[in-house]
Amino acid sequence: MKQSMTFIPTLREVPAGADVKSHQLLLRAGYIRQTASGIYSFLPLGKKVLRKVEEIVREEMDNAGAAELLMPALQQSELWKESGRWATYGPELMRLNDRHDREFALGATHEEVIMSLVRDEIKSYKKLPLTLYQIQNKFRDEKRPRFGLLRGREFIMKDAYSFHSSFESLDETYEKLFEAYCKIFERCGLNFRAVIADSGAMGGKDTHEFMVLSDIGEDIIAYSDSSDYAANIEMAEVVDHYTVSEEKEEELEKVSTPNQRTIEDVSVFLNKESSQCVKSLLFKVDEEYVLVLSRGDHEINDIKVKNYLNAKVVELASASETKAVFGCEVGSIGPISINKDIRVIADNAVKYMTNAVTGANEDGYHYVNVNISRDVTAIGFADLRFIKEGDPSPDGQGKILFAKGIEVGHVFKLGTRYSAAMNGTYLDENGRAKEIIMGCYGIGVSRTLAAIAEQYNDENGLLWPSNLTPFDLHLIPINMKDEAQKTLTEELYQQLKQHRYDVLMDDRAERPGVKFADSDLIGLPIRITVGKKAGEGIVEVKVRKTGEMLEVKKEELLDTIQNLFETLA
Q1: Dist CA 307 CA 88 (whole Å)
Q2: Closest to 381 (Cα-Cα) out of 340, 353, 354
Q3: How many CA atoms lie within 13 A of 154 on its CB side?
């Protein structure tokens, strides 16, 4: 491809609002352009890389026994109402009405559509298992789109769905696709970890996220310093490793704590450690109130609260709701002598506290010498807090450390979550109707492209892995008006294409410095410069990744390039 005939609008300056490397470089190198907040066009270079990522995904999905299809992005609301997610998915679901005032959504995901297809066509256990996938644009109305392709409102996703007559079959496919995902991200050259995760609005359980390690990642990974254990911080189990204090239980006492509203305020005022205070937070759980307790130096994990209570919606009660229920401000609530209709649950660590401090349900007062087993009745205990660095690893090996990650893939065991809601059944070998068992497997294709760009760059631009680069070679004549350079450039361009190299030839009437800067920015693996020694049949070859420079005779160029690509593989 001649550079004058394609569309690569490079930029010298970092665009405003581009806060991370991948976003900056994909914009500056002319791979993408923003058309609206969180919505991007893929320009020719970006489309070529995207196609290569998609090819890897397709190859590994096909090898795992999945079949590709394509479903509509426009989905009728009736299907979402059948599953129950029309009301619960949240504002991220983009909803619209047609001219007949019928409700639709732009596809954020396709569980409902695929279940409606399969339930209408698959009637017998003989047609199971079955795995189907698609690569398609998805739409989610992100509250705060950011980081370019890493968090957008329209993005490209590979979503797959498997259907089974037994959980053993689901386990087999889950493992097969888990391995396929590992191969996909390995072939993309990414430094990633597969971590235990929460299924969120998807439903189901037994789920893993694939996280690309990055300092700009929005997810925190908790991992062991001595084993392969890794989990999203929301799902990392906290080992019940606490010990009972030998301290004598003192008599419960209410004390004045004027204007002390936070754990930090109260602990300083009473000369206590925050770990000696009980944090009390009121949650609305499926429209009922639940008081959740944790130690003052711990943070309550609402995902664990949701899973423990098997709830659909868990949200922190507002300050006004809290005051209406307890008659005091948020910082003064506690578990002693409260309305019996309010359920009380506590993190395991609270069970081991002796002579603790809690709110007294009266502004300006707290209880001291609180002992939960003595002073609080009808309380349940569970792992309800976020894990902390230094905690024991849940697998019993080592301590927990944190890292940041970009989620690029997610696999779920959905079970009968959707078939039960949408009457998705098949007839077993005895002719009895059984609910189809389901799995779900997603990869953010456009996000994967951005994650690659985030990991593969330097101060001059992008550094694409050789199997994902938009072009294999960048052929740059210094001066196309020089007859020797022009002739040699055209000769090499044809020769390299005949040997199946994808070549970008910079035939633009630009200064050499501009061409070289653009070449580094675009990030093709090998640059071939035709310059002052063209008359002697000699060119300069530069390896983008290492900066290595070679002078090569045209007769030796093909062998040299082949050898260089072997070292880059």
Answers
A1: 16
A2: 353
A3: 12
Whether the Cβ atoms of residue 557 and residue 539 lie closer than 8 Å to each other: yes
Sign of the CA dihedral running 72, 74, 80, 82: negative
What distance in Å separates the CA atoms of residue 533 and residue 122, rounded to the nearest whole number? 68
Comparing C-alpha atoms, which of 94, 181, 111 is closest to residue 445? Answer: 181
Does 274 have pLDDT greater than 70?
A: yes
Percent of the chain exceeding pLDDT 70 equals 99
**Contact predicate 334/361, CB 8 Å:** yes
**Identity at 238, one-letter amino acid code:** V
Is pLDDT above 70 for 555? yes
Residue identified by tokens 């009745």 is: 377
In angstroms, how far is the first alpha carbon of the chain from the final one?
23
Give the whole-angstrom CA distance, residue 368 versus residue 358: 7
Q: Distance (Å, rounded) from C-alpha 240 to C-alpha 385? A: 11
Strand partners, 95: 105
The pLDDT of 505-513, averaged and rounded, is 96
User: What span, in angstroms and rounded, lies between the C-alpha atoms of 384 and 454?
Assistant: 34
Torsion of CA 346, 349, 353, 358, to 10 degrees: -40
Q: What's the CA gap between 97 and 111, in Å, rounded? A: 21
Q: In this predicted model, what pLDDT tens digit does every residue of 123-177 receive, in sequence order?
A: 999 999 999 999 999 999 999 999 999 999 999 999 999 999 999 999 999 999 9
In this structure, the dihedral spanned by the alpha carbons of residues 552, 555, 558 and 563, taken in order and rounded to 10 degrees, is: -50
Distances (CA, A) of 85 to 163, 201, 227: 20, 8, 38
CA distance 445 to 447: 5
Q: Going from the N-terminus, what domains does the chain have, and what CATH number goes with each?
A: 14-236+401-453 (3.30.930.10), 253-382 (3.90.960.10), 471-568 (3.40.50.800)
User: If we measure between CA atoms, which residue out of 284, 346, 347, 281 comes closest to residue 313?
Assistant: 284
Mean pLDDT of 103-110: 97
Neighbours of 553 (CB within 10 A): 12
Judged against a pLDDT cut of 50, whether residue 202 lies above it is answered with no
pLDDT band, very low/low/confident/very high, at 556 (cuts 50, 70, 90): very high
Q: What is the pLDDT of residue 569?
A: 80
Residue 265 neighbours by CB distance under 10 Å: 13
The pTM (predicted TM-score) of the whole model is: 0.86
Mean pLDDT, residues 530-548 taken together:
96
Angle between helices 445-455 and 44-63 (to 10 degrees): 110
Mapped onto helix, strand or coil, the DSSP state of residue 454 is: helix
Strands (E), 271-377: 278-285, 288-295, 314-316, 343-347, 356-359, 365-370
Q: What band does 287 get if pLDDT is binned at 50, 70 and 90?
A: confident
